[in-house]
Design a protein that fits this description.
The structure is a homodimer. By secondary structure, chain A is α/β, with parallel strands linked by helices. Chain A has a single domain (6-245), classed as Rossmann fold (3-Layer(aba) Sandwich), CATH 3.40.50. Chain A is 46% helix and 12% strand. The first copy, chain A, has helices at 6-15, 18-24, 33-44, 59-67, 70-88, 116-121, 131-140, 147-159, 171-184, 205-218, 231-234, and strands spanning 102-107, 162-170, 192-196, 222-228, 242-245. Chains A, B: Belongs to the APS1/VSP family.
Chain lengths: 254, 254
């Protein structure tokens, strides 16, 4: 996803259809875990879109979800599905060959790296998006890895995939800290890290990420898989043979 | 979805990559509701695909889910999202005008009509797909409406949408009972019902439904929304301005 660039996105939203999107982001959620589960399901199934904050009545639910074990279990299940797909359906053209064109795409924020520690301070997404606050967090380069994704990443690299990381983070201000953060958290051996530069500012994540993927396909790569915590990581052109949605009920990136 | 035609689909699967798909449909599911919740989430987020049966350990979970209230709540949430979208983002070109080209697409099985009574006898999807059994059920024309979708349907028709029903059910054998079933359950005023005829046999639901949608777009229709219980209802060409996934953890249609 592209948190750092989401300021631009939300600016676009503000200029555009703010009123309608605000309305559509306000469903009636009772203060019950079953209602919040329905809301979370709607988020993960891409039914609920363009929401600005977690419904206030779901604060405790989302906090418990992210830190109490179920997020972990849901993530494990996705990784299990990814592993089954790689094992049984992917046929690498040139296993472990440096010239192979078998590609895999990973998003960075809340896919490779976890921002749960940051979002805990933002009431797990009940507070509205704070671009300055997030930038201050990201520039520290202190996001821990999502361990299951790091394990997946290493398996992918070892298996011979060329792993590309695509993030909406601003390259001008966050390249150094992001590269450092990925390195210290054990992400070594990826092929390229794509960050949003000035030519992509103001574009939605779907448009930006589609452009990068089209570029890769133009270079001859076959994108076997694409993993992200936002549907905007997985929609658009050249999305990949399979896409996998990592859970994230804390924020929405258009 | 297209249950009746799924026999063809599964035949294709058998001829094709049966082994790999069988493997990928067998994740490790502990006998706990939290694990089954993770599996259900993976289904709804389109991470788990090509599964042939509900994991045996999730029989009680899926049964409780479908009949104990949570399915209902999840469905209500999707309809809430649809209503918000229609109210705030759709701009009908020619409200209530018979010549308008504002289209909406609904799937039939487990979208307009519920087969929960049938699947209860099939251990809520723990038994493998039974084409003969399903046909015997469908030919009776006794599926009750999904009440929330019927209410949505009526609102759509009243608002001026041209509602098209697209089902993978076989038109040769099930046209009469399906039309009757829809009528007795209060689905009156739809524009057209598309069923799978001989020229679409052997095609996946994605291919068949894409063809129909392309045809509609070719006629000048704008597809504002598309609602189905299977991702194969919502994937492919001309999917619609927005798609909405109705929950269904009982079966998978490729």
């Amino acid at each position: 996803m592209g948190i750092a660039a989401a300021a631009w996105m939300w600016l676009m939203v503000a200029v555009g259809s703010l009123a309608s999107r605000l309305c559509s982001s306000s469903p009636t959620i009772n203060n019950s875990s079953s209602s919040c589960l329905s809301w979370r399901l709607a988020v993960e199934a891409n039914n609920a879109r363009a929401w600005r904050t977690v419904p206030p009545t779901c604060h405790d639910y989302v906090g418990s979800y992210m830190t109490g074990g179920q997020y972990q279990r849901d993530l494990d299940m996705v990784v299990q599905q990814i592993t089954a797909y790689i094992t049984t359906e992917v046929q690498l053209s040139n296993n472990n060959n440096s010239a192979s064109l078998d590609a895999w795409i990973l998003d960075v924020d809340d896919t490779c790296l976890s921002n749960v520690l940051y979002y805990r301070r933002k009431r797990f997404g009940c507070d509205p998006y704070d671009p300055t606050g997030f930038k201050s967090w990201a520039v520290k380069g202190a996001s821990p890895a999502v361990p299951e994704i790091r394990t997946l990443f290493r398996k992918l690299v070892t298996a011979g995939f060329k792993v590309f990381l695509i993030t909406g983070r601003d390259g001008d201000s966050l390249a150094h800290s992001t590269i450092q953060n990925l390195h210290t958290q054990g992400y070594s051996g990826y092929q390229r890290l794509f960050m949003r530069n000035s030519s992509y500012k103001g574009q939605s994540a779907v448009a930006f990420k589609s452009e990068i993927r089209k570029q890769l396909v133009g270079e001859g790569y076959k994108i076997w898989g694409n993993v992200g915590d936002q549907w905007s990581d997985l929609a658009g052109d050249c999305a990949g043979e399979r896409t996998f949605k990592i859970p994230n009920p804390m924020y929405f990136v258009p």
